Amino acid sequence: MTAMIEISNAEKTFTMHLQGGVQLPVVRGVSFFVEPGECVVLAGPSGAGKSSILKMIFGNYRCDAGRIGIRHEGAQIDLARAEPRQILSVRRATIGYVSQFLRAVPRVATSDVVAEPLIVNGMARSEARERAGALLRRLNIPERLWALPPSTFSGGEQQRVNIARGFISDLPILLLDEPTASLDAANRAVVVDLIGEKKRAGVAMVAIVHDDEIRHLIADRIVDVTSFAAAA
Amino acid sequence: MAEHESAVQDNDQPLLMAEGLSKSYGRLMACRDVSFALYPGEVLAVVGESGSGKTTLLQLLSAQLAPSAGRVSYRMRDGVTRDLASLGEAERRFLFRTDWGYVHQDPALGLRMAVSAGANVGERLMAVGWNHYGRIRNTASSWLERVEIGIDRIDDAPRTYSGGMRQRLQIARNLVTEPRLVFMDEPTGGLDVSVQARLLDLMRNLVSELNLAAIVVTHDLAVARLLSHRVMVMKGGRVIETGLTDQVLDDPCEPYTQLLVSSILPA
Known about the structure:
- The structure holds two protein chains of two kinds.
- Chain A is of the alpha/beta class.
- Chain A has two domains: 1-94 and 171-232, Rossmann fold (3-Layer(aba) Sandwich), CATH 3.40.50; 105-169.
- Chain A is 34% helix and 26% strand.
- Chain A has helices at 50-57, 84-93, 110-120, 125-138, 155-167, 185-200, 212-218; strands at residues 5-16, 22-34, 39-43, 65-72, 75-78, 95-98, 173-177, 204-208, 221-224.
- Chain A has a five-stranded parallel β-sheet with strand order 6-7-8-3-9, sandwiched between helices. In chain A, strands 2-1-4-5 form a four-stranded antiparallel β-sheet, with helices on one face.
- In chain A, helix 3 (110-120) crosses helix 4 (125-138) and helix 3 runs parallel beside helix 5 (155-167).
- The two termini of chain A are 33 Å apart.
- Chain B is of the alpha/beta class.
- Chain B folds into two domains: 2-99 and 181-262, P-loop containing nucleotide triphosphate hydrolases (Rossmann fold), CATH 3.40.50.300; 110-178, no CATH class.
- Chain B has helices at 2-9, 54-61, 89-98, 107-110, 117-127, 133-146, 163-175, 193-209, 221-227, 245-250, 255-262; strands at 16-25, 28-38, 43-47, 69-75, 81-83, 100-103, 181-185, 213-218, 230-235, 238-244.
- In chain B, the strands form two sheets. A six-stranded mixed β-sheet of chain B has the order 6-7-8-3-9-10, sandwiched between helices. Chain B has a four-stranded antiparallel β-sheet with strand order 2-1-4-5, with helices on one face.
- The longest helix of chain B is centred in the last third of the chain and has 17 residues, at 193-209.
């Protein structure tokens, strides 16, 4: 099996202890795989658990049962059972995540926020900054903003910084949570191009997109999340 | 140099290990059966409210307090892992001066308030045998620069510094000997929010540049999120939940952890 992501029977339930221990089943029996160079789009109404599945693949949410197989440095690792340091190593070398919101550290310049994933993997700072600049330019972030921390930027600008940070590295897996949500048409087109380039580079992607047009442009396959509904 | 090369090769072996650590004061159990391993370059946050045993645990780990049961072992610079209880007083003091740092919440406990900033930093170098005044002063000033203290303040005593500057000076004093492990007890406690942000950003950069391992005790989950890779949640002296920091904070499982996370006021 050459799949980059191979999920079988993954399951997630939240137990809300502060609300009298209410059990909130999210998903059950989640099973799908993603091959290199393929973009799988998760579909389903809001609340169906799409974001939760993405977070489980990133190791951000715990997985109560089942298996989340990730191809990492030539071997398969089960993220559902991995140690924290293994998950961190997977995030450094294998899985990138583009969320809807930027969680940046105060005081860090935009170009450094974008270049960081390259620097932690050992690229020289100057080269990493250069690549960050090229990507920011492509995403129409004016050069005069690069030295500023992104916390003061508009929502759309922040999202583009986030996209640049997610797309800059050469990680073999990318998770995209609404990457085009608050972008105008021109920038949406840039993101569609970036996704196409990643596919040609053999990157495996899982995406959540609500825009039908974008979904049509990027999806190789659609996985319907409603089939994983866990409501008892 | 040789030490540093071997440290790089040994990243896959724990630096510090706690096994079944407990401490009781009479009938009060301040710390119960704590076990974990800390790896080089790893930052572990210990969170929980006052009285949960965080500070006791930090003192046990840093050999300032003897455990009632269990043990702490540490991989020394020569690569040999030793039980801290087996170290002599001189060896322990040497560890504290070289390979370990300890950042107190109150900088007055970690600094000498009446001597100059330069001397505060230089003193730790002299304790490990540096004796060339010019080199000591140069190293001290480059460290002051790194923690964003103007060189024009090098001859001033920290009692003339603001709270944030004192804390940054304490960090410089600790890091000047290039320790591999730093203990921090509420390092941002008692500082203004804007001062905290600057300090956190600085610590975050230093920790990653120097490949420092750190154990940070804090009741502030934002500090844990920004600085740490892993979190241990303590309650009543026990570790009740542990894991990757964003996992524990975004998907808390235990009732007490859910309470902590939900108690953060939105900004």
